[in-house]
Design brief:
With 442 residues, this protein is α+β, with helices and mostly antiparallel strands. It is 68% helix and 7% strand. It is globular and about 70 Å long. The N and C termini lie far apart (74 Å).
């Protein structure tokens, strides 16, 4: 008997291999593939494959008809094979794979976070200035709506990333923000809508994916359409209400408390450590682990106080690159690289400078970290003095972060402190690199 895994294994080479598959989705009966080059498909072999009922080609997708029940199992196995092949191609470790999955969940949300964050900042300015009273309520609703439902989007993306049905992930995660959870008691305490936030939604959707996969393997194909989604939502929803929301809420509260304590008591030191170590984290790809923490802080407090500190690493990098440009006056290739990468660095995109300038030269990478530590200590010092600076969205950095700043003393104070940190990072990164980062050019 041919299993869904056998079918998926046979399908992958016939559609041109992993490199040819750009997207995977399914409906009630068809596996729908986006292909880079449809001419690489072996249509005759596909039609002859056991379990394939037919093939439909259109302008956007290549559709393989597998029938109800079977299509969900084959799609799940097909996606698992695709991830496995991609992982081997990239030689990814389990840690890198886990971080990449976390990034794949949250990175698609960044445009909405940025747009809503800017609108929230604009609305705050209008409210403080007493202008356009009739518009501020509308702006507040527009800016806040996404954040009030972010758990649903996290659940949708999580299920999609982990091989489940995205809409089921969203449905399970919606339990976290549903107002009716206030009537539910877990561990002797009444739940609050939104308790656990994005962490609870992430855990709920991951659990839902595993429940769904178990159902796909045990529920008869004739009942799969009815029983699998019902059991997935029921089992995962109950676990979310009675376990995950409470546990994730405890973790989220601890994150917020720890961040506030860290900045209020050890702000300068914490800023130096975070600003100094962020470039190595970016180089290793470990910075992706911070995305859920940023999202949790934004959801809880309206802004993440960690991002302005981490952004100082980019300032140190810019200062170091400027010093290399000045010192290596006769190295045309390096100066051309710096000129092309520096604008991106000023806007917080540090990879071109990391891999094109500081890391290949060695010592400038360390002196850039020193500049980041100095800028982080500057911003952290003001946090100790009661002037914390946060960002209402994640994604932008450098100069691009100014429109998203928020702080205890208002936008003007926050911008001044953040700008002072950038200048400190530029100066120390430049000075350290100029003095110690390169041997004197002959």
């Amino acid at each position: 008997m041919t299993t869904s895994y056998d079918t998926a294994t046979a399908l992958l080479p016939l559609v041109g291999g992993p490199a040819n598959v750009t997207s995977v989705a399914h409906c009630m009966t068809r596996l729908r593939l986006g292909l880079a080059d449809p001419s690489r498909v072996d249509g005759a072999a596909l039609r002859a494959l056991p379990g394939v009922l037919g093939v439909v080609e259109d302008d956007d997708t290549y559709q393989i008809v597998l029938g109800p029940g079977a299509v969900t199992r084959v799609t799940a196995d097909f996606e698992a094979l695709l991830r496995k092949e991609t992982r081997h191609a990239r030689n990814a470790t389990p840690l890198k794979l886990a971080l990449r999955r976390v990034a794949n969940v949250f990175v698609p949300l960044i445009p909405a976070l940025i747009g809503c964050g800017i609108l929230a900042g604009l609305n705050g300015l209008l409210v403080n200035a007493g202008w356009l009273h009739g518009l501020t309520s509308a702006l507040s609703a527009i800016a806040s709506a996404f954040m009030s439902l972010i758990a649903v989007f996290v659940g949708y993306n999580t299920a999609k990333e982990f091989g489940g049905t995205p809409v089921l992930g969203g449905a399970i995660a919606a339990v976290v923000v549903y107002p009716g959870v206030a009537k539910v008691t877990a561990f002797g305490v009444a739940l609050a809508p939104g308790q656990g936030g994005v962490l609870g939604a992430l855990a709920a959707a991951v659990l839902g994916t595993y429940v769904e996969k178990w159902c796909r393997g045990h529920v008869p194909a004739t009942l799969d359409v009815l029983l699998t989604p019902t059991l997935t939502v029921l089992v995962s929803g109950l676990a979310t209400l009675y376990v995950l929301m409470y546990a994730a809420g405890t973790v989220a509260s601890a994150i917020g408390t720890a961040a506030n304590w860290l900045l209020s008591t050890t702000g300068a030191f914490a800023g130096a450590v975070l600003g100094g170590l962020f470039l190595p984290l970016v180089m290793l790809g470990l910075h992706q682990a911070l995305i859920p923490i940023h999202a949790t802080l934004i959801e809880q407090q309206g802004s993440t106080t960690l991002l302005p500190l981490l952004a100082m690493a980019g300032a140190g990098q810019v200062g170091a690159a400027a010093a290399v440009y000045v010192r290596l006056r006769h190295n045309t290739a390096m100066r051309t690289t710096i000129k092309s990468a520096l604008p991106a660095g000023l806007l917080g995109v540090g990879e071109p400078l990391i891999y094109g300038v500081s890391l290949p030269l060695g010592r400038p990478f360390l002196t850039a970290c020193a500049g980041g530590a100095a800028g982080g200590a500057f911003v952290g010092l003001f946090a100790m003095l009661g002037e914390r600076v946060g960002a209402t969205a994640i994604g932008p950095s450098g100069w691009a972060l100014f429109p998203l700043l928020a702080g205890d003393g208002g936008l003007g104070t926050a911008a001044a402190i953040y700008g002072g940190g950038l200048l400190t990072g530029y100066a120390v990164g430049f000075g350290a690199t100029y003095a110690f980062g390169l041997p004197k050019e002959r």
